[in-house]
C-alpha cells in the first residue's frame, strides 16, 4: 500500500479490501485458576479432609490412594478467611484437568455449611475419576454417580471398577465416555432429579453402543453414602449391590 492509498483508506475513499484478523483464542481463565489451585494443593493425609472422609465412612485406609483428591486452604465466597477444603480434580475424556470441585470444611472436619461445594472451571462433560486400585487404563467398565462422597462409598463397597463422579445430577448425561468403555453402571441419588438424570444418561449412552445398568437404592436411603453408613452401623455385613434395574 502506497502513501496515496493509505490516505484514501483513512478518509474512507479506498476500494482496498480489508481482511480482519480474528483474535487468537483466549484461554479459559477459570480453568487456569482451577489448575493453579490444584497444583498448589497438597495430600489430604492428616488434614480436616481426611477427618471428613472418615466421618462419612470412607477412611483413606479403606479405599485406594486417590490421585485426584487433594487438600487446600481457600477463601469461601469471597471471604478473607482461609478455610480447609477437599479439592477434587475434574478431567475431560483425554484426562486433562479442566476444573475442580471444592468441598469447604471446618478445622474439625465437618462441612462448613449445608451448601459447601463450589466448582471452578469447566465441569460439564468431565468427571472426577476415582481409582479402584487396578489398571487405570482399563476403562471398559465404570460406575457413574452424582456426588464425590457417593463415589467413594461405591469404591469402599464395590471396588471392582473405576468410579466417575459427574459432580451433579444434571451433569451425568453430559459426561464424555472413552471410546473403550462398553459398560456403565449408573448409581443415582434416590430422588426424582437423580433418577430422571440417570434415565437420560442411560438413553444417551445406550445410543452410543454402551451397555447400561441403572441401579436403584432401596427407598429408605437418599444416596449411596447413606446406604454405606447404615450398613456399617448394622451387625450384618453390607451387601455389595443395593439393587439393579434393567438396562436402559
Automatic annotation (TrEMBL):
Its EC number is 2.7.7.-. Gene3D superfamilies: 3.40.1360.10. InterPro entries: DUF7146 (IPR055570), TOPRIM_DnaG/twinkle (IPR034154), TOPRIM_dom (IPR006171). It comes from the Bacteria. The keyword Nucleotidyltransferase applies. It is an enzyme of class 2 (transferase). It comes from Sphingomonas aerophila. Residues 142-232 form the Toprim domain. This is DNA primase.
Amino acid at each position: 500500500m502506497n502513501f496515496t492509498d493509505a490516505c484514501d483508506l483513512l478518509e474512507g475513499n479506498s476500494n482496498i479490501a480489508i481482511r480482519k484478523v480474528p483474535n487468537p483464542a483466549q484461554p479459559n481463565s477459570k480453568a487456569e485458576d482451577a489448575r493453579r489451585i490444584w497444583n498448589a494443593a497438597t495430600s489430604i493425609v492428616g488434614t480436616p479432609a481426611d477427618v471428613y472422609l472418615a466421618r462419612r465412612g470412607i477412611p483413606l485406609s479403606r479405599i485406594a490412594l486417590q490421585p485426584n483428591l487433594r487438600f487446600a486452604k481457600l477463601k469461601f465466597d469471597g471471604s478473607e478467611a482461609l478455610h480447609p477444603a477437599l479439592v477434587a480434580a475434574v478431567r475431560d475424556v483425554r484426562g486433562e484437568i479442566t476444573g475442580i470441585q471444592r468441598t469447604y470444611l471446618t478445622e474439625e472436619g465437618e462441612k462448613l455449611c449445608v451448601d459447601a461445594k463450589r466448582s471452578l472451571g469447566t465441569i460439564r462433560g468431565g468427571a472426577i475419576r476415582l481409582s479402584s486400585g487396578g489398571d487405570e487404563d482399563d476403562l471398559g467398565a465404570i460406575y457413574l454417580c452424582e456426588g464425590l462422597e457417593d463415589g467413594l462409598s461405591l469404591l469402599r463397597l464395590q471396588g471392582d471398577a473405576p468410579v466417575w463422579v459427574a459432580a451433579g445430577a444434571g451433569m451425568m448425561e453430559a459426561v464424555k465416555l472413552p471410546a473403550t468403555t462398553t459398560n456403565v453402571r449408573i448409581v443415582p441419588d434416590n430422588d426424582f432429579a437423580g433418577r430422571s438424570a440417570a434415565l437420560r444418561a442411560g438413553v444417551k449412552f445406550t445410543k452410543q453402543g454402551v451397555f447400561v445398568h441403572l441401579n436403584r437404592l432401596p427407598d429408605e436411603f437418599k444416596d449411596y453414602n447413606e446406604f454405606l453408613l447404615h450398613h456399617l452401623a448394622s451387625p450384618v455385613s453390607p451387601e455389595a449391590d443395593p439393587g439393579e434395574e434393567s438396562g436402559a
